[in-house]
Structure formats: structure tokens, C-alpha cells
């Protein structure tokens, strides 16, 4: 229980540090745009799940529902990690843009790795397969939002490049399949 608490504290601390850096460097009028990114949303959600589990552990318990929430948060930041290194890095060829500052390094690498290690090492217990669709849900919900705002409404620029060449159907399918694969791997491991 203690190692889990230490890592969950680190996740919360690192996320607060990253968000502080993001807020400091972003002009006030542009700050709401930061919350368009799955990276930011998944990291905030993962930090919230880590905090919930941390509070539960302080009371001497690790309830199954809190572990499932942490699993969902871990899967979300694992999708962020994989998207950054398997899609964005090859597409942009810019490690500087992806890990060039504290917020990016924390949200693209440190928090996902901490979440995966803590979940697999200290929090994983017997979990029903019903949790897998829950772990895929954040990607599906965000995918729908991104599709709506970028393709249908044209209100956001295609900052992930998922609609490049009009291939949003392929991108959506690959992201959903990747999310399922990550959720199953975390569940199985």
C-alpha cells in the first residue's frame, strides 16, 4: 500500500507542477484552449484518480471502484504516451516540441510512466473484464468531441493531424483500436 501512495502522490504533484507551468506560460485569454488537448484532460483525470486512490489508502483501504478508476486514468495517459511516441514524434520529428518543457515532459512521459508502473506494480488486483470498456471510454468520448469540433463544426484546427487528407475515419478507428489494445494489455498484465 505504501509504494502506491508514494507514486500516486508523485502523480498528483507532477500534474500540479505541469499545470502550473502551463498556466504561467499561456496568456490568460488562450488558457481555455489548453483544455482542448487530450494530453491535458487525460493527465488531469489520471491525477484525480490517483488522488482518490491516495485518499482511500490513507483510510487503510484500496476499494475496487477506486482501483478501476485508476485503471481508467492509467489507460488514458498510456494512450497519450503511445500517441506521442508512435504517432506525433514520427509525424513531427520534433522531440523538442513534445518534451521541450516541464509541462510537456510531465504530461507526455513522466505521469504516464508513473501511472503505468503504480497500477501494474502496486494496485492491480482481480478486476473483471467489464472494466475494459470503461478504460476505452475517455478515448471514444474525446474522439467524438475532436471529430465534432474539427471535422463537423470546423471550430478547432486539426492540431493532432487526425483529419489530414480527410482520413478522420481511419484515425478514429486506429485510436479506438489502440485504446482497446492498451486497455486489454493493462488489464491482462
Keywords:
mainly alpha, 76% helix, 189 residues
Question: Can you walk through the features of this model?
Answer:
This protein is mostly helical and 189 residues long. 76% of the residues lie in helices and 0% in strands. The protein is built from seven helices and no strands. The chain has helices at 2-25, 38-58, 64-92, 95-99, 102-123, 131-152, 168-188. α1 (2-25) packs antiparallel against α5, α2 packs across α5 and α3 packs across α7. The longest helix is centred in the middle third of the chain and has 29 residues, at 64-92. The model has no long low-confidence stretch (mean pLDDT 88).
Short summary of the structure?
Helix content is 76%, strand content 0%. By secondary structure, it is an all-alpha fold.
Q: What is the typical, i.e. mean, pLDDT?
A: 88
Distance between the termini: 19 Å
Helix share bin: over 70%
Q: Using the CA coordinates, give the radius of gyration.
A: 17 Å
Count the DSSP helices: 7
Give me the strand/helix succession: HHHHHHH
Shape: globular
Task: List the uncertain runs.
Answer: none
Which structural category fits the helices and strands?
Answer: mainly alpha
Count of DSSP E strands?
A: 0
Work out the oligomeric state of the chains in this entry. single chain
Strand content: under 5%
Q: Major sheet: size, sense and barrel closure?
A: none
Amino acid at each position: 500500500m505504501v509504494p502506491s501512495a508514494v507514486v500516486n502522490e508523485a502523480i498528483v504533484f507532477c500534474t500540479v507542477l505541469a499545470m502550473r507551468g502551463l498556466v504561467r506560460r499561456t496568456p490568460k485569454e488562450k488558457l481555455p484552449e489548453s483544455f482542448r488537448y487530450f494530453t491535458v484532460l487525460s493527465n488531469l483525470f489520471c491525477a484525480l484518480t490517483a488522488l482518490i486512490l491516495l485518499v482511500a489508502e490513507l483510510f487503510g483501504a484500496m476499494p475496487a471502484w477506486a482501483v478501476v478508476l485508476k485503471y481508467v486514468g492509467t489507460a488514458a495517459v498510456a494512450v497519450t504516451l503511445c500517441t506521442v511516441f508512435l504517432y506525433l514524434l514520427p509525424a513531427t520529428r520534433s522531440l523538442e516540441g513534445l518534451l521541450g518543457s516541464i509541462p510537456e515532459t510531465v504530461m507526455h512521459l513522466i505521469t504516464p510512466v508513473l501511472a503505468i508502473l503504480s497500477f501494474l506494480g502496486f494496485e492491480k488486483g482481480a478486476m473483471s473484464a467489464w472494466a475494459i470498456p470503461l478504460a476505452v471510454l475517455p478515448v471514444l468520448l474525446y474522439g467524438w468531441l475532436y471529430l465534432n469540433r474539427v471535422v463537423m463544426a470546423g471550430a478547432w484546427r486539426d492540431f493532432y493531424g487526425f483529419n489530414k487528407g480527410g482520413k478522420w475515419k481511419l484515425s478514429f478507428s486506429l485510436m479506438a483500436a489502440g485504446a482497446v489494445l492498451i486497455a486489454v494489455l493493462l488489464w491482462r498484465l
